[in-house]
Every structure is written in structure tokens, then in C-alpha cells.
Task: structure prediction
Amino acid sequence: MKNKDKKIIDKFILWSLSTLNKWHLNRIEKYNNISIIENKDNYEVLLPNTKTDKKKHYSNPFTVALKTPKVNNIAITGAYGSGKSSFLRTFEKENSEWHYLPISLATFKETHEDIEKKEEPKENTPLSSTDDKHRIEKSKGTNKSELLQDIERSILQQFFYREKDSKIPYSRFKRIRNIQKKIIFYHSFVIGFLFLYGFSIFKTSKFTELFSSNFFVNHEYNYLSYISVGILFYYLYRLFTYLWNIQISKFNFKKGEISLAKQDKSSILNEHLDEILYFFEVTEYDVVLFEDIDRFDDTEIFIKLRELNNLINNSKQIARRVRFVYAIRDDMFVDKERTKFFDFIVPIIPYINPFNSERKLIKKFEQEIEDEQIDESFISQVSLYIDDMRLLINIYNEYMVYKNNLNSDKLNHNQILALVICKNFYPLDFAKLHVRDGIIYDLFLNKPTYIEQKIKEYNNEKRKKSREVNHI
Result:
């Protein structure tokens, strides 16, 4: 067999394997069947679990809230890591009668409290005058306003960038579109055809001279005129659609100026209220799920969203009820504020806490304990500090990676797990270990000194107790 034939066969085999692998991954994505993935070490993803609430303890009251008339603002409350997102994903998967629009603000930007701390004067630096106080207060207000605008902008982006451009054709929010070569060729051909038709009508003799026959006006091809009119109407429709999306507030013929309409810039949602109403008019979403808004520790955004919900539901151009669902912390609203703000509240009890984390950890590290690689007593000790399921899963995943990559037969597995736990709680200090810096490095470096110091303290305490005994 020639080398050329071998190369062709090799390429065909590689192509076949690549195609099968893509088909395999598509099946996993389509049917969400992760059981067909080879996973001998039982790794788990940190995404929300879609198999929670099997007994419907949360789904039942949430369903009642969604079906009850005039209940349009619903809160799903719980501590961080309690499973709010997991419950919402499970409910969304099992209840397809509603159309869901998830909005997530999982950001790590500075919160309102961080902004206030940053703007506070440093210690031993007295304010020079009352003007300085006003300047700082003004700066705080500006930063808060900018933060709220960023939140609103993110919400608006997730509204519109979720849908295809063809679904919201009259929206003024335009995106970059991937125009295929065949589409460009098609439009070029059609426009060229239209120009030829116009040329044949207005310059008949010239057209006949160039092409020897004017087939556009020939009775055998009279249908071409209808096609041309149809094409003309199509492009006029596209032109008017484009012009309809432009808002003009001033038109100056003398100076040749066109000014676009200015709107309220203080609130992104208010500025584009007509866009939002249009979005809900042409789409079918009736349940909007807001997650991670509580990260900003500012209740003003909830007030704006409640006002927006009222406007949507009172609008006559939207012929359905739209509910807003907020996944927030229990302490987001103080006192009785949350019962006044929300129409219905569903509390989520944390799936894991310091009292049951030991049982969860032992179950997760069951194989390691059976193989006597990790002591169950050590699991019991560290479980008191783990109260988040994502943290627990990530600790297990990282432990297995470290164990499989290191020469773990010669290492203490309890110490590997301890190091991984430390890495998850103090990632910055763990990163500094690589450059021989940080608190953890100092502890190991000065270990002999600490031991010697403790021995001295122990001996001093021992001598003190001995003297006390002798005096009795």
C-alpha cells in the first residue's frame, strides 16, 4: 500500500472518530445524560443540581404562587449555598407550562458597602472642611448610581441578547450578525436583477441594443415584472423597518443636522422602557428568574424591578401576566420590609450545614475511608467548618486530582485533604506557597520555633503547678 493511500485512510479514521465524539457529546448535551460519561473517580460539577425537591416541599407552594392571580413578585429566600438555584433549575425542568427567562448577575464587583468603605477618610486624616464632607457624600451617591446603572444594563443585555435578532426585528438593539457568503450572493443577484429591470423599462432601446432582446417586456416573460415588483416591495419594507427604529428629536434642513432623541439617562430601565415592553410583547416569557442580585446589598434595584413589573402587567399591549421571581438571601431585607415588598415568599432550608456536613463528607469520601486512605475521625473534625455543598464537592474534586497526580502512595492522604481544604478556604495564601510567602509558609518555616516556644510554656506551667502542689 502506498504512503499516499495510508495517509488518506488515516485521515478518514481520524475524521470518523472526531465525528463520533461530537455525536457523543451532542447526545450528552441534548439529553443531559452525564451517566454515559466515563467518570471512575465520581467527579461532580459545581452547577445547580436539577434533581432536588423530589417530595415537592418547595414546588407545591411555588406553584400556588405562580398560579394565584395578582401574585407577580415572588421571593425564593435562603442562605448562601442553600440550594435556591438548584430548586429553580429543577422546577424549570419539571414544569414546562411556563416560559422562563433566567437573569443571573453572578458578579464579583464591589458592593455598596465596599464603596462606602473606600470613600471613608483614613484614620488620623481629619476632614479639612464641610466641603470635604459634601464631596465624599456626593462621591458615594455617584458610585451608587453608577453601580445601579451597571446592574440595570446587565439585566437589559440579558433580556435582548438571549433572543435571535429575527425574533425582535423592531428593536433598536442591533448586534453583529454572521452574514454567509450565499446570502450576500443572493442579495447581490436580486439587486442586480432589479437594476436590470429598471434599466429595461426606462432605457428600452439602449437595453435592446446591448442585449439584442428586451426579455423583460417580452410577453413570454411577463412574470418577471411581478417578480421585480415583489423584490422592490421587500427592500422598501426593510428600509422602513430600519427607519422606524430611529428616533429623531430635531431635524435642521439649513445646517443639515439630525439629532437623535434624548431620554432619561439616570435609569437604564426607564430609558429603554418601550424596548422592554416590546420585548415582552413579541416573546412568550411569563416567569423571569432573577438570581444573585443580592450580591450588591442594595434594595433600590428591587424597587425598580417591582415598578417595571407593574408597568409590564398594566400594559395593554402585553396580553398575559408576567411574574418576577427573586432568589435572594434571608437577610436582604430587614424587619418587615420583605413581607411588604414581595407577594409570596418560599424559604429554602440549607441542604448542608455544620450539623449534617459530617454525614455528607463521609458519604462523599466513602471509598477513601473504606480503603483506609483517609481517617473518618479526621473527616469528623474538618466537617464543622464546611457548610456549603459547592465547597464540599470542589474539595472532593480537587483532592482526587491532587491524589492522582502526586505520588500519593508515599504521602499521608489526610495531609493532602487538609491542604486542599486550606486551599479552598485561603486560596491567596495557598498561591503564595509557590513563591515561599504567606501565613501558611511562615507557619511551616517557623515550626521548630513554635514547638520550642510551646515546650517552654509547658515547662513553665509545669514548674508553676509543682510549686503550688509543694505549698499545699
Residues 110-119, 121-128 have pLDDT under 50 and may be disordered. The chain has four domains: 3-36, 59-171+265-347, 181-244, 357-450.
